[in-house]
């Protein structure tokens, strides 16, 4: 966790720096608004902790400038200005939270942790794996036991759907909707044809079959 602390009260800044570092954070520090903005604009921080009243450029100015440039790093305001209008102004300027001085460090720490959770969504899945079958969603590549398998675009989508539901029965209706974008049954054997082609590519030359037909229900991809 990397934090930028912008606070011109030296005693307060040193105390927070020490406490945050002891909790495991890497902390950079600035004592005026212009230096704080320069550091914050690098986009290298997980959370910004900003005093509102700063020399050079106040905290509101820092946040407004960052947000206007597309920087969405979570911001926690620290301020002795604690009236409702002050808090509203800070949040409307682009702040994510607002803590009034004086405060307990345990509360600041909890608020920073909450901002980290809010600002760090789960990374999108880029690889799927079932037994020795692997799919790279970014490179659009499929390998089984180290052997590359070349798939047509529709076959790739079909396999992706099956891999995302590995160990579960995938019905014909699910395949029609997710792979062909059909919300009705065209009464053709299009699924059977593509399943047969896919099975020939991912199972034919390998010892253990992965693609199984569940009679009367649909298909399932799972290790034997």
UniProtKB/TrEMBL annotation:
Protein's UniProt keywords contain Transcription regulation: yes
Database matches in Gene3D superfamilies: 3.40.50.2300, 6.10.250.690, Winged helix-like DNA-binding domain superfamily/Winged helix DNA-binding domain
A GO biological process held by the record: regulation of DNA-templated transcription
SUPFAM superfamilies: CheY-like
Domain spans labelled OmpR/PhoB-type: 125-223
The Response regulatory domain, residue ranges: 2-116
Alphabetically ordered keywords of this record: DNA-binding, Phosphoprotein, Transcription, Transcription regulation, Two-component regulatory system
CDD domains: REC_OmpR_CusR-like, trans_reg_C
Any one Gene Ontology cellular component term annotated for this protein: cytosol
Signal sequence extent: none
InterPro entries documented for this protein: CheY-like_superfamily (IPR011006), OmpR/PhoB-type_DNA-bd (IPR001867), Sig_transdc_resp-reg_receiver (IPR001789), WalR-like (IPR039420), WH-like_DNA-bd_sf (IPR036388)
Positions of modified residues (4-aspartylphosphate): 51
A GO molecular-function descriptor: transcription cis-regulatory region binding
Residue ranges: DNA binding: 125-223
Protein name, entry field: Response regulator transcription factor
Species in which this protein is naturally found: Thiorhodococcus mannitoliphagus
């Amino acid at each position: 966790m990397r934090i930028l602390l912008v606070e011109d009260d030296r005693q307060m800044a040193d105390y927070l720096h020490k406490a945050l570092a002891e909790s495991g954070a890497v902390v950079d520090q600035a004592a005026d608004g212009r230096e704080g903005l320069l550091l914050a604009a690098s986009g290298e921080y997980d959370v910004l902790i900003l005093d509102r009243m700063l020399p050079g450029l106040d905290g509101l100015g820092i946040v407004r400038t960052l947000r206007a440039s597309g920087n969405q790093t979570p911001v926690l305001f620290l301020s002795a200005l604690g009236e409702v209008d002050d808090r509203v102004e800070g949040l409307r300027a682009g702040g994510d939270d607002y803590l009034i001085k004086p405060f307990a460090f345990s509360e600041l720490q909890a608020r920073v942790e909450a901002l980290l959770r809010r600002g760090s969504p789960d990374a999108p899945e880029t690889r799927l794996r079932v037994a020795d079958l692997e799919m790279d969603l970014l490179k659009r590549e499929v390998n089984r036991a180290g052997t590359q398998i070349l798939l047509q675009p529709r076959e790739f989508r079909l396999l992706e759907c099956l891999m995302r539901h590995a160990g579960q029965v995938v019905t014909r209706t699910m395949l029609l909707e997710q792979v062909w974008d059909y919300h009705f049954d065209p009464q053709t054997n299009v699924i059977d044809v593509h399943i047969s082609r896919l099975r020939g590519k991912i199972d034919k030359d390998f010892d253990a079959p992965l693609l199984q037909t569940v009679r009367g229900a649909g298909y399932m991809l799972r290790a034997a």
